[in-house]
Design a protein that fits this description.
With 301 residues, the chain is mainly α. It is built from 14 helices and no strands. This is Carbohydrate ABC transporter permease.
């Protein structure tokens, strides 16, 4: 009797028999098959609405109104895109959304990286308290700020401007951005900063020449995550924009609502296809850097 069997006998339990190689391979293949099925189902659930959107944008209005909404197009037409571009100021709406998205992301990256650098790398008394206050901003709902911001903007003349949308969008995105940057900075070796200081580099030079360039993947992650929400923002634009010239994409889609609330659905779907395509292409190009940024920063925190 082996020592393992003797110990198992003293404990009153029999040793667990090992599975034969064929049985282990069968269980491993079953596990892989189940994992593949689950992944395929998740991908199908995520991709199907996008495919349905593009297919519906190619259907004729009569086909959409009379046929099965989830069937393949009986007749394909590009008139929906022509009508979408002609009905509303779609080009101007895209430009406004681009300006707001870029402006807010510039503020988020600049303020987020500098705040995280001060909290994590430089450090100061009560820096932990300041970081906790930043994180508390994640749970603050944006709706409670609409009325105070509207009153303040009316006093300082910021209503119906790009700044009226950019400032709150950047402000509410800062807590999560500071958390992501802080998580990444905490894993940069301290010896790197010590070597830079021995070479005579000050805190500003260390930030601009070492910390900020090393944050490229995290910056891409922060920009892409926030760009999706900023590009699709409706609540701030609907509250602070008063003129048609500053309408963003979510507000511009209201132009396809006709008399008595009738909606030109096929033209609306075509307009949505046009507006999501730039963001989708950028996401497909930068998704590798975004994943690397999440792995190097967010998941380590």
């Amino acid at each position: 009797m082996t020592a393992t069997s003797q110990r198992a006998g003293r404990r009153g339990t029999a040793p667990r028999p090992s599975l034969p190689p064929a049985e282990r391979r069968r269980r491993l293949d079953l596990h892989r098959s189940l994992t593949t099925v689950v992944v395929v189902l998740i991908v199908a659930v995520q991709v199907y609405p996008l495919v349905w959107l593009f297919l519906t944008a190619l259907r004729t209005p009569a086909d959409f109104a009379s046929g099965n909404l989830f069937a393949l197009p009986g007749e394909i037409t590009a008139d929906n895109f022509v009508r979408a571009l002609g009905t509303g100021n779609l080009g101007l709406n895209i430009l406004n959304s681009f300006v707001v998205t870029m402006g807010a992301n510039v503020l988020i990256v600049l303020l987020g990286t500098m705040a995280a650098y001060a909290l994590t790398v430089l450090g100061f008394r009560l820096s932990g308290v300041v970081r906790a206050v930043f994180l508390l901003g994640i749970i603050v709902p944006v709706q409670i700020a609409l009325v105070p911001l509207f009153i303040d903007y009316s006093y300082v003349g910021l209503l119906d401007t790009y700044a009226s949308m950019i400032i709150p969008l950047a402000g509410f995105a800062l807590p999560m951005s500071v958390y992501l940057f802080s998580s990444f900075y905490s894993y940069i070796p301290g010896e790197l900063y010590e070597a830079a200081m021995l070479d005579g580099a000050g805190p500003y030079r260390i930030f601009t020449q070492i910390t900020f360039p090393m944050s490229l993947n995290t910056i891409v992650t922060v920009v892409m995550v926030n760009a999706i929400f900023i590009w699709n923002d409706f609540i701030f634009a609907n509250t602070f924009v008063l003129s048609d010239g500053l309408r963003t994409i979510p507000l511009g889609l209201q132009n396809y609502i006709g008399a008595m609330g009738n909606v030109d659905w096929t033209a609306t779907f075509a307009a949505v296809c046009v507006t999501i395509t730039p963001l989708l292409l950028v996401f497909l190009v930068l998704n590798k850097a975004m994943i690397q940024g999440l792995e190097s920063g967010a998941t380590k925190g």
